[in-house]
Amino acid sequence: MHSVISSSEDRMKKTIASLKEGFAALRTGRASASLFDKIKVDYYGDKSPLNQVANISVPEARLIVIQPWDKNMITEIEKAVRSSELSLNPSNDGKVIRISIPPLTEERRKELVKTAKNQAEQSRVAIRNIRRDGNDELKKLQKAGELTEDQEAKITEELQKVTDSCIGQINQILEEKEKEIMEV
Fold first, then answer.
1. How many other C-beta atoms are found inside a 10 Å radius of the C-beta of residue 163?
2. Which of 93, 114, 139, 143 would you call most buried, defined as having the most Cβ atoms within 10 angstroms of its Cβ?
3. Nearest 5°: phi and psi at 25?
């Protein structure tokens, strides 16, 4: 495989990984520990990821339990969850924080699907831009005499196959996320 294809494919895979990360943060009606991946807590003056100062578990489909390793962190964690964009209302009993995930309204589901479609489209555009960069690189190599026209055409075709495969993966990931958001 040519280095232009492998470097383009690496970049495309990173784009897909980034989309999956973005989708993990999209709240559905189901409880998920990954909702809290982006939440940082003030841990004795340092901003630390929530999952590094507490255990996050999902004992039921609509319940999340956060158990801080240091009980003094309960109010800080609660504050961080409340001020996040998740719109969740945590409660604690002095030992653990419980967060019940309310079912989403139809309107909110449609908003989330729209957001997911938008993120997926941005990823598809990024994939196409990576393909364009790869094609430009191939043209330069061909002009410099490092590739024949036939080699350039063959590698360009390979790059298109990789692009189509990645766009297919993005569409599949979006379809799954839409189902997850719309299920009641």
1. 21
2. 139
3. -85, -10
